[in-house]
């Protein structure tokens, strides 16, 4: 009886740990509760989101001006002096746009570097209202600074507020600030609020050119109540091309900073579903729970010494502050864990509790369980084949993706329980634990060498070794003790089990399955003592089937889960033809009418997109009246020896949103200026590639036009080269054009995100001669 009670308590400890690791990571919030004026109110912040995110507000449209005016009004009502910064920038990938940044500055008592709070106020082109991305960030800052001032605080450091523009186009507003604004040199620390989805935890991801220690120290000293971050995510983030405004500040201004970004419900990112109703209030509250303590702390902390040579490992445990330790401990800990593991194994053998052969046999269930990774891989491959419509989701994460995530967790659990049940014998739980500990040591060693940010995986290993020791000693109340010893593994692994497919797409389900196995083996000391393993395994499999069915019944597109689709009209003025084009893999009731005689689209010069998507189908379209842009090419008469210099003017003759210019990437430009600006190198010190010399793609320039402003180009090429330049000119008025009569989408559809869509495009080629 006592044993059963013990097992039950141990199991409850595990379940509580898992629940807490999922639910204890961000605040609960009651939007109807009165919040004192000097505190951050999620409801008040949410009102800002409502006001800013009624419509798409991208550079150049009317709602964009409205959003800007709203922010200015709010800052003025706080009694702040506003400063506008306006100007063109040409970024390193050739994106040219005029940004309008909004700034304000609160003077501090001291002389130290300033604290910068920032977010961007433009939304993604052309269909996203941008409630999460990034009205949530703007709202967080407006509400936090209001609460901060309401409590009568006077900061020691100056506080600069920066609402950047054109983040979505090429981080141009941030570049304008860091390159040209005098305040940029004053900044000691930047806090940036962002999103890549519409819910879930907000992750803290730091940006620094140096070691991370000083920044992590500052972050822990601020004592935020719900820190969610770890050095593994930081290492992975650094390897991915996820640039934010802070990246520009770090690269071009050597400014240290912390990003706070949430990524759950990724399918809302940059789409028409990024509306206030889809923003999770707990997530917005989480952003506020970061900013308030950080604002109070950093407004008075010295910000002059945030560069440090030292790096630290760090991870969060919900409800506690960060656990951190220096990189210099990585190899000593790895060495100590090896010694401990060997010592406990030898101790067990001497005590006649461990036998060599069963230990070696323990690799069998471990390897078989790891097959769950393969199951996860083929599961998603099967889903893509069985539901071809999932290919329309550019995000790689479907609306029903969380059901798949849960399903894979239970499938992996079922496999583990079944396999380990088969290999279980009376009194061999501890022997089966040895092989997993050896694997965990190998993982820790690989991390120590190849992915240092993940080297803290040695901690669950250490606790696992203690578990093995206790199993060998066979203490009386060992189960409950063992359950508590497996909590670090739960807290460290659960975030990754849940977040890899969210961050990197459902193709990562295999990794979730593998991580479930790695966690399972450390829970095995407790689970191995349960008599009903087989039953639990069977139940897990039933739950897996159930979750798969739930996902199946949510696989159809409808109003709540709208289908992304695309339609683009292209008038080719060179060939004097017009075509309908789509990026979609399959057709639907909206697109079918246009692609009856469709052909597979040829890869031609086209506007770059996040995922590099190109047209799948093309079909003939009626010719309509479309004024071509005015292009004038002037060859300078007094060119230098061996060079031809050209001055080009491009003036759109209709309301357009974008211009892209292309020339074969073999064509190098000795100099290339757009509106008087030259693009910087792609990666200073790292690469010789340049968008205009040593070119890595055909695109020369991506220009986001406002009204009909003339674009001026000055180019120098080798004498006699006479390069050909292709111009694409796009406008988002497909639905408004009376000659085309394109009917509106129905409610169960949205414009496909990340690509140029719903557009009328004119193509025209000209030669520099
Ligand atoms: Zn954003």
Short summary of the structure?
40% of the residues lie in helices and 19% in strands. It contains 21 helices and 23 strands. It is globular and about 95 Å long.
Quaternary state reads single chain
Strands, total number:
23
**General form:** globular
Largest sheet: 15 strands, mixed
Tally of DSSP helical segments: 21
Bound molecules: zinc ion
The helix-and-strand class reads: alpha+beta
Residues in β-strands, percent = 15-25%
Low-confidence stretches: none
Mean pLDDT across the residues is 94
Task: Determine the N-to-C terminus distance.
Answer: 94 Å
Can you offer a commentary on this structure?
The structure is a single chain. This protein is of the alpha+beta class. Helix content is 40%, strand content 19%. It has 21 helices and 23 strands. Strand 1 and strand 2 (95-106) form a beta hairpin. Helix 2 crosses helix 4 (131-150) and helix 16 (429-450) packs antiparallel against helix 17 (458-473). The longest helix is centred in the middle third of the chain and has 23 residues, at 401-423. The chain is globular, with a radius of gyration of 29 Å. The mean pLDDT is 94. Bound molecules: zinc ion. Zinc ion (ZN) binds at residues 120, 133-134, 167, 194.
